[in-house]
Design a protein that fits this description.
The complex is a heterodimer of chains A (360) and B (210).
Chain A: H1 2-11, H2 13-49, E1 54-58, H3 74-78, E2 83-96, E3 99-107, E4 116-120, E5 127-131, H4 132-137, E6 143-146, E7 149-158, H5 162-165, E8 168-171, H6 172-179, E9 185-190, H7 196-206, E10 210-214, H8 215-221, H9 223-257, H10 259-267, H11 272-307, H12 321-347, H13 353-356
Parallel strand pairs in A: 3-8, 5-7
Antiparallel strand pairs in A: 1-9, 1-10, 2-3, 2-9, 4-7, 5-8, 6-7
Helix pairs in contact in A: 1-11, 2-9, 2-11, 2-12, 9-12, 11-12
Chain B: E1 2-11, E2 14-24, E3 29-33, H1 40-47, E4 55-60, E5 63-64, H2 71-78, E6 79-82, H3 94-98, H4 107-116, H5 132-144, E7 150-154, H6 162-177, E8 181-186, E9 197-202, E10 205-208
Parallel strand pairs in B: 3-8, 3-9, 6-7, 7-8
Antiparallel strand pairs in B: 1-2, 1-4, 4-5, 9-10
The chains are: A alpha+beta (360), B alpha/beta (210).
Chain lengths: 360, 210
Amino acid sequence: MFVNALRALRANSIKTALIYISMTFAVTAIFLITAISHGIITMYASMLQRDGDIIVTQAKIADTFFSDVDMALIPSIRHIDGVKKVSALIVGASPVENLPIVAIYGSSANRMQHYKLLWGHYPKHSQVIVGQALYQKLGTKKSLTIGGTKFHISGVYTSDVGFENGGVVMPLADAGTLFHKSASMLLITVDMHKKINAVIKKIGALSDTIEAKSTRSFIQHYNQFQLINNSSYAISFIAFTMGLLSIASLMTITVYARRDEFGIMRALGIAPKKITASLIVESLILGLVSFTSALSLSFATLFIIKKSSLFQGYINGEIDMTLVAMVLTATIFMSVVGALLPAYSAAKTDPIILIQRGCA
Amino acid sequence: MIVATGIHHKYGKETALRDIDIHIAQGSFVALTGESGSGKSTLLSILSTLLRPTRGEVRIFGKNSKEVGNIDHFRKETIGFVFQMHYLIRYLRIRQNITLAAQKKDQEYIDTLIRYLGIEDIQHKFPHEVSGGQRQRAAIARAMANRPKVVFADEPTGSLDSKNSQKVFALLRDIADKGTTVVVATHDTAIMDFADCIYRVEDGTVSRIG
């Protein structure tokens, strides 16, 4: 059956190519949209996870960009039993030179070491260090202007996180002045993980205006991540549906063009379920070939995106085994379901058409 | 033995066949002749289970065609078809076309069949690589592959020249002589020299003319 399915696909090369192309694009779209959204989430999540076990943000705020946490809480947090380290971070964004948007980080001095310097020193007042990817794009390599304020570049750092590698880091106080806030979030490392819930409770009790969560819980429930995930699922579903409809419509055309073939099979007494199975096998072969092509195409596209200066390193898709397995399952489902109706229609071909063609 | 009783068939409001009774003996070579549009192919379709008559009954080797449970299995076991167009599947080699619905264990019989039909040299070729006459012989081989009790042929010589038509009729005659019933719908008068029994279909009615 497999060999005959291959022969049938080869014999109907144009229709096969059309189905292959539409499936490959649909599967590539699913891969890319999911990989990119996962990549964005992973980048931001790994940035937060690196900094501690607990995150404190302003209460009832949808996005960390709008969060403002009072730094005056830091001494009280430090005194809570089990708290090892408290650092502060401001996240913002601003145009820099010709670039429409660049990530700006205000960092407390005790977390500056996260940024691995390639040269120079950590920033002091009115100084910034810039990510390697951003530095390559800057026209003036000595200083840059953010929000009307000029900052001298004191060094260049590198980071695996695309947002950071294409961003700017400045002292927390300078960022506070720039964005008119105390801190976007406080990042807390605890001494003993068993105590984390007790520490969270105590931090929460310090003020009604703040919200303390474990980093893991924050990442799981962060609105923006959910929004990105839901959007990616919605777009992937649309791509999946389009792929499904393409297969169904092209397979229907193929079945119609091959109705003599199915008619003679029925006349010879070949069971309808065998005809259905043969068409589903054809669709599955196409699905698997398209999946392989889509996987390669997605890797190539993500590589180009990663290397392209157009995206400033902010878009960094990740394809892991879970995603591969998920998309493979979706492709198999798409191939089988898309072929089901046309295959059923082929299996129901009435062999009488072979006689009715041009006869009395 | 095929017995059709009171066969009446309509396409919409148009009557194609009127109250036809026909009896086809085992191992006979029966021809259904008539002009184009006379209803001979409709009759052949009804006799061969491809079409259900509006009214009437067809019994094929004792079984009422309306009461056959698994029609595919019944066709596979009992009936072979040859059509005007050979309908060989273009991406399968001749031998693969012949064995499409055949039992795997019957390969020896298929070899015999291929030799008998004189197509051993072309069995590994594709349909487009052989002549029209060879294609039709391959289609006959395919019809015979499951050792059917009856072969129905609809205009089997319709796309062949007279020389090849003679060969095909001679082949069908030989098949009938070996015990398989052969029913042919054709307007080719050459069949007169081969058939045991000739029916003329005219305006939806049937009369035996030979």
